[in-house]
User: Fold these one by one.
Assistant:
Number 1:
Amino acid sequence: MKTLLSKIRSQLKRQASAKKALEMQAYMKSEMPYHGVQAPEVKKIAREAFKDFEYTEENWRESVLYLWRNAKFREERYLALNLCRQTKAREFQTSKNLKMYEEMIVDGAWWDYVDDISSRVGEILKNEPEKMKKKMLQWGRSKNMWKRRVSIICQLKFKAETDTDLLYRSIEESMGSDEFFLRKAIGWALREYAKTDSKEVKRFVKANRDRLSPLSQREALKNLK
């Protein structure tokens, strides 16, 4: 794991840009510094770094956490997230590894990390719907804003398979919040589901017009006439 992190850091340093690093850090409002390596190059580094990776569940989980916990630059955490979404890691998307994702959500506490992780949580939800629905409803009531955001947006790509009961109950818990990232998440989740059932989203927004924030309503109805 030390070798993997060292290899990643070496490749990132070779492509580093001090100017871009400052721009990226300012844009993301990040306390953790950047190397200044943009997303396409980070993906290339990931392909090379994980080319010969040993995909056992234990090695995968420990490597993800090692990269995450020992990161000194934000791109190093992006590499940890990239390892999470590798095709060969799909079989590891189970509730057994939810604790790892929960740590990363709470520790990362910003949208670039959390939104990426929410897709992995969504995969676990698809794999274990009954167990994960209970967990997502718990997260929807959490004092941690980012866990609540995940409970709302974890079904973004579910389309017709969306569990609307879970979606609406998760939204319900955050409907009265003043938090921008929760209001945005509500609108985003509804807007995505509107691509599948626009009438239902219109009905939901109309029924909750006095409770949904203007931002959530605008986002939800953004692409609807």
Note: The CA atoms of residues 30 and 74 lie 8 Å apart.
Number 2:
Amino acid sequence: MKRLLSVLALSLFTLCCSAKPLQFGVRGGLNISDESSHKYLSGISNSTKFRQGFNLGGVVNMPVTEKFDVEADVSYSMQGFKQDIYTTTLDEYDEVVLQTITSHYLNIPIVAKYYVANGLYVECGPQVGFLLGRTNNAKDLMLYDDPYEYSKSKKVDFSIVAGLGYNFYDNFYVNARYCHGFTGTSQIYDGGKNRNIQISVGYMFAR
């Protein structure tokens, strides 16, 4: 984690101190998120399901060469997952309820972008996310303390980001990313690592 933070800090320093003209913009779009299976699911649920959310934030981009850019984002990201839970842990259960866990993150990815064709690029880099809040719509149905509440969640999430996008000539662009978390989301159970697909539209302001 310390190495990843060092990489993020060095990348931000490079962006700020570069003699190249920086580009600024905004981006936003759809999140399709989930969490990897964790031990807490045993006995109360079959599996997790994707949930939809959104992302919205600002972008700073530094052109390095004709084919290579470095980009940093600061964005709000609504993530989490869904699952069917049983109202009892017995083999015979009375009801199945759809539970939705909502995680609110402030994400800061820093990616290297390489242009493989005119306007088309691929990108990859680290991301750090700071948990702003976490809610459980079925909290009242939990037999014991809610394992998904904010106080029992890890507050920092480290991920790797990979994606591709296309820049249009009128400063608009489209982008798709996959974010793969490594640190887990809970302080009390194993697993539960973030998985998130982002499909976004952005606009870069003219220099």
Note: The helical segments are 2-17.
